[in-house]
Amino acid sequence: MDPRKLLYLATIIEWGSLAKAAKQLAVSQPALSKSMDRLEADLGVKLLDRGASGVRPTKSGELVYAHARSMREEMALAQTCSCGHPARSNVLTLATLPSLASSVIAGAVARWRTAQPAGLLRVVEKVQIELLVGLQRGEFDFVVGQTEFFDILSDGLKQRVLFRDRLSVFARVGHALFRKDALAWADAAAYPWICPMVGWSQRNALEKLMDEQGIRFPANLVECGSINFTRTLVASSDHLALLPIHSVAADVRAGSVKALPLDVSSLKRDIAVVFQESAPLTRESYELIRHIEEVGQALSRD
Fold it and tell me: What is the rounded distance in angstroms from the CA atom of residue 124 to the CA atom of residue 175?
């Protein structure tokens, strides 16, 4: 496959129009159309559905697009590394933990957008160690995550704590554990759990807490990094989960889940913004961080 044609394909799909993509790429529309014809012929599959309303990728097109986008990102990263500093663009890229994305970050972005209606914001979800490694590689403008691992990956990075995240063990309303007079961790460990994969900070904290209680980690376990899947499973089954309180605030208000009276005070975590010293943040970034701090503090109090 011709790498240039793959980059053309990615641009066409993102702009949804051959004419707009041609203008963005500074090539003629007929030449761009012919380039896509050749790419489809080389691969032996149809990649684009072209109609009066625009251009849409086929299923094969979506698959090739995913690879084309990865290739483009690797090329940008190579350029960044060769220059010795992050390449600036009109795209603001924020990376965060999955447990923060749907609550704190979404709420902050909604506020921020009222004053920043233009420009592309890209939100990426990663585990803690990948946030810091990606930031060092120049893949993100800044990250919002825990303070964990900062000490060992702090070369060239700065961090500032934004708020203290509160955690609780949640179960569906009506769960048998709510009827126990003196609930203990051993009682909770007897039920199925859903938690992140091995190596994720919340999983490590939960395993450490149970170990300190002399309790064997539950064998009846579902591993998943998706907050939405976790919320749904907890609300519709006997599964338990350790979650930040802001991530299930809507479910608590709706009366579908509730926090169990278990002591998790030792599992509080500091949430910080981390950025590169060599890449000063823009005014737009500072404004978004301010909203993240305000929303995070409010949700953690609630």
Answer: 34
Entry pTM: 0.62
The residue behind tokens 């084309």 is 68
d(CA 288, CA 125): 17
Q: What pLDDT score does 79 carry?
A: 65
Q: How far apart are CA 276 and CA 280, in angstroms?
A: 7
Report the SS3 class of residue 168: strand
- Which of 157, 156, 208, 210 lies closest to 185, judged by CA? 210
Instruction: Write out the residue range of the structural domain in which residue 33 sits.
Output: 3-83
- Beta strands 221-223 and 91-96 are unpaired
End-of-domain residue from the set 36, 63, 83: 83
Domain of 79: which CATH number?
Answer: 1.10.10.10
Task: Examine the domain organization and report whether 235 and 175 are in the same domain.
Answer: yes
Domain count along the chain:
3
Dmax (CA) for the chain in angstroms is 75
CATH code (residue 231): 3.40.190.10
Shared domain for 158 and 141, answered yes or no, is yes
Name, in order, each residue with C-beta under 8 angstroms of 167's C-beta and a sequence gap of 6 or more: 202, 205, 242, 243, 244, 245, 264, 267, 268, 269
CA distances from 55 to 6, 45, 249 (A): 16, 16, 40
Q: What is the pLDDT of residues 108-134, one digit of tens each?
A: 999 999 888 878 899 999 888 888 888
